[in-house]
Amino acid sequence: MPDTPAPPQPAPHSPDASVAPHSPDASAAPHSPDASVAPIAPVAPVAPKQRISALDALRGFALCGIIFVNIPQTMEMFAYAGQMPTPLRLFFLGRFYPIFYLLFGVGFGIFLRSARRRSERPRLLLVRRFAAMAVLGGVLHLLQPGEVLLPFAVTGLVVLLPLSYVPVRALLAAGVLLLVAGVLAGVGGLGLLPGLFALGFALAELRVPEGLPDARGRLLLTVVVAAVTALAAYGVITLGAPDVAQIRLGMVLSLATAAFYIAVFLLLLRTRAGAALSWVLAPMGRMALTNYFTAALLFVPIGTALGLRGSSQWGLAVLLGVGILTAQAVVSNLWLRVYGYGPLEWAWRCVTYWRWLPIRGSGDGAGGRAGA
């Protein structure tokens, strides 16, 4: 050991979808004067514990809602929304995908922010990340035509990559404009994807996720504003607005309901029930890519065997979704007790960094302190 301390070096940063609020990459604390000239650390992800567990749990929550639309949609159980049971149509259809879109935008923003400190060519890593997701999406599309991984990859390359060069305030403005344009276009849920991706990306650059522990007041305000907006949009729709307006109001309703869900869920994590929610949902969220992909591998053949295709057996479809989610919750928790990443998450990282990375890590699948 040398007699004098070595100059400070930047600590490792996680390129994952969530970074712990105490990680150097996730804090706004000033860096050492030497940080700007310090050599770039080896390009590789670090321990999965450096995460914001609230984001992992929220991502798991979104997965739980998405499957109850994916199953009947893929099984062709409805041709238009009016054919769905009212609870599914009001509380699930289009309500959870916006959360998923936003969180993936946040994840890509955190990843690039970390990659800038870990690599001389951070956007090359991001392009590899999108390319790998496109391959996964292309494979999944053969089984589930309505999957979102391929649109995620295309939107990332076409929208996020160019926007990564603009200042963060301009990025936030671009996200808002793209979201408004998506609503006005009235082309359905995927029309919201570019705006929500850009907004999530901007929120990551502004370090909003790291401020969640101190955001109670803003979350309560979001609950009120989102509830009023959702009720107003629903009221106008039920009064018989023209079709062209109903489509756009429906998208506003979806966004407002998603914002309401996000704020209420994050507030619930602060209560006594929060530990239990995080214990169940955070491991699912850490393995979101694996769980999203394997859900289709399960519900397509099982749903077909059960005779769901083209049927109106909504209760059976819901039970199938509950069964798959239960299995994924158990497997995710047990898997992350041994391994640091889910199988597809690990493969995604290997492609991103173009090297073989260890999959084992200090797992905390029981929802231990892995972040905020």
UniProtKB/TrEMBL annotation:
Keywords: Membrane, Transmembrane, Transmembrane helix. Residues 238-355 form the DUF418 domain. The keyword Cell membrane does not apply. This is DUF418 domain-containing protein. The chain crosses the membrane at residues 57-75, 95-112, 124-143, 149-168, 175-199, 219-237, 249-269, 289-308, 315-336. Residues 14-34 have a biased composition (Low complexity). Residues 1-13 have a biased composition (Pro residues). It holds the Pfam family DUF418. It comes from the Bacteria. The keyword Mitochondrion does not apply. Residues 1-34 are annotated as: Disordered. It comes from Sphaerisporangium corydalis. Signal peptide: none annotated. InterPro entries: Bact_Transport_Assoc (IPR052529), DUF418 (IPR007349).
